[in-house]
Amino acid sequence: MLFHDIAIICPDGQTREHMSVRVKNQLIESIEPATRSLEEVRVLDKDAYDGRGKLLIPGLVNNHSHVPMTLTRGYGEDLTLYDWLFTRIFPFEALLTEEDMYWGALLGIAEMLSGGTTSFTDMYMRIQGIFRAVTETGIKASLSNGLTGDASTDLEQTAWFKETEALIRDAAATGGQVIPNASLHAQYTSVPSLVTQLAEYNRDRKLRMHIHLSETEGEHEECKAKYGKTPSRYFADLGIFDTPTTAAHAIFIEGEDYDILRDKGVTLTHMPSSNLKIGSGLADVKSWRDHGIRVAVGTDGAGSNNNLDMIEEVTLGSFLAKGIHRDPLLFSTGELLTFATRNGALSQGREDTGLLEAGFKADLAVLDMSGLKFQPVFDYGTALFTNANASDVVLTMVDGKVLYKDGEFTTIDIEKVVWNAYRVRDEKLAALASK
Ligand SMILES: [Zn+2]
Fold first, then answer.
1. In angstroms, what is the span from residue 93 Cα to ligand 1's centroid?
2. Are both 106 and 204 inside the same structural domain?
3. Is residue 421 part of a domain?
4. Is the backbone peptide bond immediately before 376 cis, with ω within 30 degrees of 0?
């Protein structure tokens, strides 16, 4: 496939217009200035893609999600976190089957593909359903089941253990499309003896780790009161960070936490919509970056966002940083794009992904900037995280395959997915009402 006469953001963060990007097999084959007209190019390649008025970027990596939570989108708004979880989300989730997870995941994946996301890092449960949705659609994912438990928990006897072992086996046959992760839900939903068992298992299995970290002030302070250390120190001491880790939220990290997280190579995932909506607070991404910590971006589950729009998430994060620090230079377009693409890919262990460079995986997204709100365009690159959102994406490609184009999915029957999402929702609401 040839993207002809299109604007791109180069790895150095600069926008270059009138470029020609060729994709062959699964890879970006070449990136060079477009020197001929579309008509001339189409003599040789009748399917050459008309890139005029469009911006090509590396595919976005949603580095923290609970993808089937699309099914609970909008179920219980304007509640405290505690009431939302205990009166709505947990009872609803308890009823979800593996098949329900499949439909919820398909809906989330479709939304992500339509918004330029080519890979996501997920933590949920009954993940065989999510695995099936990922492999059928062609999106990439790092999947995990968030472990919870108490002092009586023997890791090898848990449903979590069976699911994770099955995931490792199944993922091995996907050629890297699915990467199995280990996952601990959070410090406050586990105990040290369980965390130690998990860290041992993780070192043995050489998995990447995915956790929630210091999301609320309450959990952060309770950990300090109970163990005399912050959650970051607690996890480091118990060996959780001994394999590459991605940690979500990190709003309340402090003091030596920054050095621990940097030295252990932990990636922190910023999710400003969720942080704001749940009323948790604001993460200081500038401090993360200034301490040399790798920064990535995620949407969190659809219940607490309420969409899976990565472009909106990056823009909100950038605007918040500018306002909080009274510094309009936070952050450059190149830096923001790195947070949302390359850093997420590296966090997943995908060294060959997330850069617009020959030889890298052709995980790409195209935005149409011919709409009124972009006119007149001064710079396609800087328009990305100031003025665009997911609905401006017109094409998404994973491993060189077009999975979404102009409102159509090539691997998803979207009407069937939406119908099933309503069916699952109505069945669960009826079951809850009859209790
Ligand atoms: Zn989360």
1. 14
2. yes
3. no
4. yes
Asked if the structure places residue 41 within a domain, the reply is yes
Query: For the segment 155-171, what is each residue's pLDDT rounded down to a tens digit?
Result: 999 999 999 999 999 99
Name which of 76, 142, 139 is nearest 108 in CA terms: 139
CB-based contacts of 90, cutoff 8 Å, min separation 6: none
Q: Is 254 inside a domain boundary?
A: yes
Ligand 1 mean position to 122 CA, how many Å?
9
Distance 305 CA to ligand 1 centre (A): 11
Q: What is the CATH number of the domain that holds 397?
A: 2.30.40.10
Predicted pLDDT at 371: 95
Say if residue 223's pLDDT is above 90. Answer: yes
Ligand 1 centroid to Cα of residue 76, in Å, is: 17
Which residues form the domain of 40?
2-58+356-409
Domain contains 182? yes
- Bridge partner list, 31: 21
Number of domains in the chain: 2
Residues near 267 by beta carbon (within 8 Å), at least 6 away in sequence: 63, 244, 245, 246, 247, 293, 294, 295, 296, 343, 346, 347
Determine the distance separating the centroid of ligand 1 and the alpha carbon of 277, expressed in angstroms.
13
Calculate mean pLDDT across residues 291-301.
98
Could you read off the pLDDT of 85-107 as tens digits, one per residue? Answer: 899 999 999 999 999 999 999 99
In a shared domain, residues 10 and 64: no
Average pLDDT over residues 290-303: 97
User: Do both 290 and 343 map to the same domain?
Assistant: yes
